[in-house]
Design brief:
two-stranded antiparallel ribbon; 15% strand; extended
Length: 342
Amino acid sequence: MPSRTLARTISKWAHEAGQRYGIKVHFRGTEFTRRSAEDRGMTDQYPADTMLYHVHANLLYEPTRLLGERGWSEFLAWSRQYFGAHWHDAGRVGDVRELVKYVVKPAELTDGPRPLDPAEAKWLFESLFRLNLAQPMGGFRDFWKGLAEAGQKVVTVRAAGGKRVLRVTQKATRLDHSRRADSEEARKGVPANLILGVTLPMWSHTPWAEPMILVQRYQPGAVGEAAMERLREIDFERMYARQLWDESGAPDPRVALAVAKAWRERGSRSTVTPFRAPSAEGAYRVHTSSLTVRPEGTGREAAGKTDPPDPPPDGGQVVLLERPGGPPIDLGAADIDIPEAS
């Protein structure tokens, strides 16, 4: 069955499966294998060196009601008859990566007695042109569309205990970072306040994950139209990050910094480093070609952490708030000095 025909057939099957059996179909992943007729044992139908494509799909579906053994067997038999092809229910998904591992193994295209030639490559390109080989469906498709419209994405983070969990986070804003240089910058060759990027949320300076803005030659007092324009972009990023911080239900930043300070003063093993104003000795060195971190003991190390901090001293714990109005936070059994707003 051609890939395009298979995709349309699966969409129709998903609609009917929902009406007949209450089955929700969440995802279709189309794959194909490329092997010779000889390898497939089909030399009675094709010349031995004929390359045959076997198109198939992985489907992620979910029953919304109890069908029972009889109802489930009926659903499987109906699906097999609907497609008129081999059908196998693999049970519960153990690793979702198996659904989208690959479309085709590269070795099947480049290796073997008959590698892909230009004519066959053209045919394959035209056959797959504008075809969604990995397709969210149903409610999952609506969820994915909502992420795109809201400028969000799903990322993997490490929760307490080292467990990997999925979280929805805001994508970095796409600003047209000005690289136009003033006459003084053009003479020196290194512009000030140049945004290199915005990281994913990380645990660095407080027990709450937050994004970091990487800036080359940060100079709040820089003069020159281009440098001041880039400074305004940095301020915009900071205000946007604070907006997301508040919407996520995180505490006042003064509270977060005071908590980090208390942890460190009480001898916590936490990797969180309370934020300090940058200095000449403490500036981060960022290399755009490769990441370099100084060995321990030779100077300041990059403090960005992708793992959550260790538990605070005195048996306290932190619950990361996933939404406004989330559960209360236990910060341990000690008083915390919250600085006054300046």
